[in-house]
Specification:
- An 8-stranded mixed β-sheet has the order 3-4-2-5-1-6-7-8, with helices on both faces.
- Helix 2 crosses helix 12, helix 6 runs antiparallel to helix 13 and helix 8 crosses helix 9.
- With about 290 residues, it is α/β, with parallel strands linked by helices.
- It has 13 helices and 8 strands.
- It binds adenosine-5'-diphosphate and magnesium ion.
- Magnesium ion (MG) binds next to helix 2.
Length: about 290
């Protein structure tokens, strides 16, 4: 390669790196706390700001973004890994113009796949990853290696917690693992299913105190969400709440959470790596 083509190559690489989307991973220690609800509604709300959004359903056991939205999926990431389909065949259009990469039970073994298969997925994704402004990832519950590989690939972590002591304990366990493995992605706590704002703030403050005292770090307030029957209504209607109930209190609270996510200081965007690249790297961590 001569000098000119070398320079051209590095400029192209730089352009692609700069354009990589911000990855927001929605997670929790415990299941059934509202991860899918927030993933869907945050993704659709982001798209309102003329952003191109990809929602990845990475809950490999109970993946149900498609059910939440009444969408039918034909293919999954597994078909890309096997080389039978392109990623563009797998991605489906969701409400508000978002793109959705559906989960599949066949993805269960995703992280046990051979390197070559995962590299194929990474390459397929990196071809058009830069087309998105943000990627929202809905994870499964728990702190398994699969879940943590996605969580540790985040630029920002949205941790959903409820006042249930089991939810708080599991969330704390997850924070501990996150902080042991990386320090740059801010963790925003969403206090879900609370009675009022005060309960939400106090839930966050208690957790932050524990993190400061025992883990010598800090977490951020991502907002609160009241326990509200409209949430279940929207799920029954198979529509995101921000579309089915646009003038409701929960919609306003989702918007406030979104502003907090945008306001959180993330890693310098020029240092980002491709998402599946990070997931593959995290597979080797001992979590
Ligand atoms: N703020 C809320 N108010 C009332 N019900 C809620 C709220 N958040 C979640 N839910 C209910 O909790 C259940 C689990 O939500 P989901 O988003 O599927 O959780 P996860 O993805 O964490 O398993 C759903 O049936 C949903 O209706
Ligand atoms: Mg879920």
């Amino acid at each position: 390669m001569n000098k000119t083509s070398n320079k051209l190559f590095s400029l192209t690489t730089l352009k692609v790196e700069r354009n990589l989307p911000e990855i927001i991973v929605v997670t929790s220690g415990k299941g059934g706390v509202g991860k899918t609800f927030f993933s869907v509604n945050l993704a659709v709300t982001f798209s309102r700001f003329k952003k191109k959004i990809l929602l990845i359903d990475a809950d490999i056991h109970l993946g149900n973004v498609d059910l939440f939205l009444g969408l039918r999926t034909k293919y999954s990431i597994a078909d890309v890994i096997s080389g039978e389909k392109n990623l563009s065949d797998v991605i489906i259009k969701g409400p508000g113009g978002i793109d959705i990469l559906p989960a599949s039970s066949a993805v269960k073994d995703l992280l046990d796949e051979e390197d070559a298969a995962l590299q194929r997925l990474h390459q397929a994704f990196s071809k058009f990853e830069h087309e998105y402004d943000k990627v929202v990832v809905d994870t499964g519950a728990g702190i398994s290696k699969n879940v943590m590989s996605f969580v540790l690939g985040a630029d920002k972590i949205f941790l959903v917690v409820t006042p249930d002591p089991a939810s708080i304990a599991d969330a704390y366990g997850m924070i501990k693992i996150i902080l042991q493995n990386q320090e740059y992605a801010p963790i925003l706590v969403m206090a879900n299913m609370v009675k009022n704002e005060a309960e939400g703030e106090s839930l966050y403050s208690k957790m932050n105190l524990m993190v400061q005292r025992f883990l010598n770090s800090q977490i951020y307030f991502g907002g609160y969400m009241l326990k509200d029957p409209l949430v279940a209504d929207s799920i029954k209607m198979q529509k995101p709440l921000v579309i089915s109930h646009p003038y409701s209190a929960p919609n306003n609270l989702i918007r406030m959470a979104l502003r907090r996510i945008i306001g959180a200081q993330g890693k310098d965007s020029s240092q980002r790596k491709g998402f599946f690249n990070r997931v593959i790297e995290n597979r080797n961590l001992s979590v």
